[in-house]
Amino acid sequence: MKSGNACYDSVQNVLSSRWLSKNLKIKKYRKIILRVFMYGCETWSLTFREERRLRVSEKNIWLRVFENRMLRRIFGPKGDEVTREWRKLYNEELNYLYFSTNIARVIKPRRMRWAGHVARMGESRYVYRVLVGKSECTRPLVRPRRK
Question: Where do the structural domains in the chain lie, given as residue ranges?
């Protein structure tokens, strides 16, 4: 996630530029920022609470917050006709303007694909031993006795 934020900071001026079209900004977001952000998502360890949030409500998780921040930068503020003031776009408006799959829905299939890849590895590979739970150490699991 830190690398995704660093990538966002480096292209922040491009995303807020008035000279580029929104389609070009979205392409840059998908090709550069999203790929850097999602790199290694197969190995992310999500807590039970985050997993539950993924299933129950996809609006409350940090992935959605990251994506909404990017989209607000791309689409910019909206002029309100009633109050004649500028305001941020609501989440529903962002979903309507950016009709792509939610990045929270991308993580689970990638993690399952990675788990299948690790399950097919040989027993000599360290990643497989971590997945299965076989360790090499011969130390007892209890605390050593005091002498």
Answer: 2-106
